[in-house]
Design a protein that fits this description.
Blueprint (H helix, E strand, L loop, with lengths): L2 E6 L2 H9 L4 E4 L12 H11 L6 E5 L11 H16 L4 E4 L12 H11 L3 E4 L12 H11 L3 E4 L10 H11 L4 E5 L7 H8 L3 E5 L1 E5 L17 E5 L1 H12 L3
Parallel strand pairs: 1-2, 1-8, 2-3, 3-4, 4-5, 5-6, 6-7, 7-8
Antiparallel strand pairs: 9-10
Protein name: Copper homeostasis protein cutC homolog
GO molecular function: copper ion binding
Organism: Seminavis robusta
Length: about 250
């Protein structure tokens, strides 16, 4: 059966993902920025929440900030500490990726490989930094670069704004990978499309966020706490989406 990875930012999300049969959770903070490294407390609590079944693996996002994937030496030092912290707190894997600076954006193989080696024996997913590359040589060269880092899977939308638009590329990537690295489709995975996506591309896994906006439980807030215009909004787990995707994929098995 196709693996299911749910991107979460809460203990509640971890419990729900496990209940609906997720293979893995990707634990992040700041999902509105594409995900950054969660706190030690959050990692520990999610590990405890998943410990009862041990059927859902915990992968921790290693990303010190939002924005691009070209990191300074100080930021790389933070990432190394966060990898060590994640391992100590019982994570099964980490999610990361580094790119080169300049007009031509490629996988930074030496830097990423050093992080993968530091993470050992944890498994590593190379995240959607893959979709920010623009290697003029070929997509195959970029794929081979990630394989060289030692990462076990790539999270990608197929170099497109969504998996639906990147379907042809996802299919090609899966074929080029030849089982040497897993291809996981993510960004815009929907219950009404996921079955066709898997049938068309043969990806080994799908990745999605299952949350929805609700009004904040605190009704009074007259002073903004940051740049976000959503101080009166919070997010809760979308149980229906998790179950719908699980059922759709179960029909393929």
């Amino acid at each position: 059966m196709t693996e299911i990875e749910v991107c979460i930012d809460s203990v509640e999300g971890a419990k729900a993902a496990s209940r609906y049969g997720a293979t893995r959770v990707e634990l992040c903070a700041n999902l509105n920025e594409g995900g950054t490294t969660p706190s030690a407390g959050m990692i520990a609590m999610v590990r405890e929440a998943l410990a009862t079944t041990r059927t859902t693996e915990l992968y921790v996002m290693i990303r010190p900030r939002g924005g691009n994937f070209v990191y300074s030496q100080d930021e790389l030092s933070v990432m190394k500490r966060d990898i060590q912290m994640s391992r100590q707190l019982g994570a099964d894997g980490v999610v990361l990726g580094c790119l080169t600076e300049g007009a031509t954006t490629c996988i930074d193989v030496p830097v990423t490989k050093s992080l993968v080696q530091l993470a050992h024996p944890l498994s590593v997913t190379f995240h959607r930094a893959f979709d920010w590359t623009n290697n003029p040589t070929s997509m195959e060269v970029t794929l081979e670069a990630v394989i060289q880092t030692g990462a076990k899977r790539i999270l990608t939308s197929g170099l497109a704004p969504s998996v639906e638009q990147g379907t042809a590329t996802l299919k090609k990537l899966t074929k080029l990978a030849e089982g040497r690295i897993a291809i996981m489709a993510g960004c815009g995975v929907r219950p009404d499309h996921v079955k066709l996506l898997v049938q068309t591309t043969n990806v080994q896994a799908v990745h999605f966020t299952a949350r929805r906006k609700v009004l904040s439980r605190q009704e009074f807030n007259n002073i903004p706490m940051g740049a976000s215009a959503e101080d009166d909004i919070q997010y809760e787990v979308d149980h229906e989406k998790m179950e719908a995707i699980r059922q759709a994929l179960q029909e393929l098995s």
